[in-house]
Recover the amino acids of this structure.
């Protein structure tokens, strides 16, 4: 029992550490190859691996109308989100700041879910939205002066991530995580392939760095964190990730300093701290109103969860990544 409790206590911080490392790997990757090429390679390899896992485990594949919904959510969560985020990093936006912008995902999800999924926002969450928004503004202020385009790309990625998550929650809650995510990667890869051919010169400048970054992003971030998340789901520890996920921007900043020697300005550090507090407040559990029910009988909801939409679980392990 004691050993099991220790494992449950260790899994969430390990998950957050691995997830944060994706931003550091992305910095290395875009330094070795164009960002859209890196994203295309990620989706292609990760899609093949997850499809193989889905076939081996006998996962149910989406069909008919559900397949269309999975494709739409995948284009938003994968293609728009990661394509824009990698463009922002390639344009010089620090990984910690990109992580902070993406950390506002639960804020935007809650705002979108209120009218679309009939979920109520509590006063404490409004405070979180405000504090988190101020934190992001402070963190990107210097970057906006240097490169407004990178900030815009980061925000576009956030919008894609949040919109895709809400769309997925509404239309494909029961999507199998293996086969569904494989489909999402599969529909996103061609889009990024065309984009890199049209908008970039798809050539790798540093194959060792590109290979190492791509291997880490695919094996650790696209597949490894998915496996770890499902282990936590089975052990009942996944809910702890939500309460810790506000640390992602700070963890990313520390990893960037340790691995890349990157530093942040005082304004960016203050922004990271405020953003973390805001996201933590915004991630408090919220309740959804059942249609036709007033007051009594609300059901628990987690649209405000600060888990990343690409891997956030629902109560069922069939939830999408």
């Amino acid at each position: 029992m004691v050993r099991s409790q220790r494992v449950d206590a260790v899994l969430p911080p390990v998950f957050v550490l691995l997830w944060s490392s994706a931003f550091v790997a992305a910095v290395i990757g875009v330094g070795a190859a164009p960002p859209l090429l890196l994203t295309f390679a990620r989706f292609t390899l990760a899609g093949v691996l997850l499809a193989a896992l889905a076939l081996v485990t006998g996962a149910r594949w989406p069909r008919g109308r559900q397949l269309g919904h999975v494709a739409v959510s995948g284009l938003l969560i994968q293609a728009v989100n990661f394509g824009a985020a990698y463009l922002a990093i390639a344009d010089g936006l620090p990984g910690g700041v990109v992580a902070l912008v993406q950390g506002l995902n639960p804020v935007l999800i809650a705002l979108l879910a209120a009218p679309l999924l009939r979920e109520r926002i509590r006063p404490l969450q409004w405070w979180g939205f405000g504090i988190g928004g101020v934190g992001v503004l402070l963190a990107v202020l210097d970057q906006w002066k240097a490169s407004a385009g990178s900030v815009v790309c980061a925000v576009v990625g956030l919008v894609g991530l949040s919109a895709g998550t809400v769309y997925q929650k509404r239309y494909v809650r029961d999507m199998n995580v293996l086969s569904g995510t494989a489909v999402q990667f599969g529909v996103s890869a061609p889009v990024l392939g065309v984009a890199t051919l049209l908008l970039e010169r798809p050539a790798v400048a540093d194959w060792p760095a590109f290979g190492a970054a791509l291997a880490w992003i695919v094996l650790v971030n696209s597949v490894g964190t998915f496996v770890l998340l499902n282990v936590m789901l089975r052990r009942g520890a996944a809910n702890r990730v939500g309460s810790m996920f506000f640390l992602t921007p700070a963890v990313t900043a520390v990893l960037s300093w340790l691995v890349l020697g990157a530093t942040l300005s005082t304004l960016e550090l203050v922004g990271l701290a405020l953003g973390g507090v805001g996201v933590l407040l915004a991630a408090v559990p919220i309740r959804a109103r059942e249609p036709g029910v007033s007051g009594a009988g609300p059901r628990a909801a987690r649209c405000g969860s600060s888990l990343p939409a690409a891997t956030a679980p629902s109560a069922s392990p069939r939830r999408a990544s």
